[in-house]
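FAQ: What does a multi-protein file look like?

Like this. Sequence, then tokens, then the next protein.
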Amino acid sequence: MAPSTLMSLLLFPLILPLSYAATFDIVNQCSYTVWAAAVPGGGRQLNNGETWTINVNAGTTGARVWARTGCNFDSSGHGSCETGDCNGLLECQVYGKPPNTLAEFALNQFQNLDFIDISLVDGFNVPMDFSPTGGCAGGIQCLADINGQCPAVLKAPGGCNNPCTVFKTDEYCCNSGSCGPSDYSKFFKGLCPDVYSYPKDDQNSTVVFTCPGGTNYKVVFCP
């Protein structure tokens, strides 16, 4: 599968009415509360040690799971978060606001394979592990203290921004033409070698992992 095709599967949501499904267990092992978010899926407050399980339709593309931090919601599910906020809703309907560490996936694609990755293209807020729970070996981790080592210009409350959010230039956002790794993307890649570190990092196939369709997964915050 061409890199551009794969990236389109990871970035643009599409849900097809197929008969299979994958289960995702989203676990908070952070010492603090996070507000888990998923598109598709919604959102849920997770205290330390709690798990939220979601079922995702086969054929889903452009999907992601992330943690929100520093949130405050009222009884109607409206409020805001310091990182990862999704238009002020507990039940996310859109992607979150950077910075946020992302578990991205597309299910039952080329040769009925699932494609999964961890992306720091939207920056970093909490460490993450994204792994299959059976029937497929391997997984992806980003465990480094990126917030503690974040370059001063990228620092944000509760996280470490990606350079596109800060500078808004094509050099970092890769909106047109070709762009390569920058000193900032190399900072992320150096601490978490298996992650997407900038938008065209899909040219490096080691950041994308595949499993057979029908595999179930676990996303762990602060593993």
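And here is the next protein:
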Amino acid sequence: MSEGKRPLAIVTGASTGIGLELAKKCVEGGYDLVIAADEAEIETAAVELRAPGVMIETVQADLATIEGVDTLLSAIGGRPVDALLANAGRGLGHGFLDQDFGEVRRVVDTNITGTIYLVQKIGQAMRARNAGRILITGSIAGFMPGSFQAVYNGTKAFLNSFSWAIRNELKETEVTVTCLMPGATETEFFERAGMLNTKVGEAKKDDPAMVAKVGYDAMMRGDGDVVAGLKNKIQSAVANVLPAAVTAEMHRGMSKPKDGE
């Protein structure tokens, strides 16, 4: 990749939804972009994002694998990364014992393994330069046991915790780590997770552009975390004080597939 005068941002999971909206915010903020996803729609996203003077490079790779992340890292070459927006994620609905374990493993590898590998590689270079911003997309789902979405919620609980831990490790540097914690958002997530036939799948959801703006602005301020939306702030606050058995039952009501459909 050729050296550019604009700062460089990487956005993963950028083909649709929150990731695409985060990429738009980066373009507005003056960044060149490397955008990545595991689907061909990443090329369509690049067309939508193009603007005069903006360098946009696409990477189609399986970010659930070390090899896929290495493909993304190779595309960056030696150019310094000023902002990493680690947004790639995958969901999976229905009861855990009824899920295909290959799909379970893919959720874990996408949300956790690929994400932390990418954060480590980019974070090491940022620390060496003593400059950079990292935004990790967690979720308010990480605050409660995810009945009928158990593995997904578990991975987001990990990311919420992981973000704060590495932020603390980097507190004596100029590298910031921010965790964006959305609630249910109007994206393709629920269809891909097989959750359209649930209360949360059918309910009104947040605008991904709003969520992305909240996350981007928090990253630029260097905040530790941010919950997008007042309703989600209330829900996360409640989840932090109620017993786990109660929040698990609450989640069951939102995520259990409807009987007979």
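Q: Is there any per-entry metadata?
A: Some entries carry free-text notes. For the entry above: The first strand starts at residue 8 and ends at 12.
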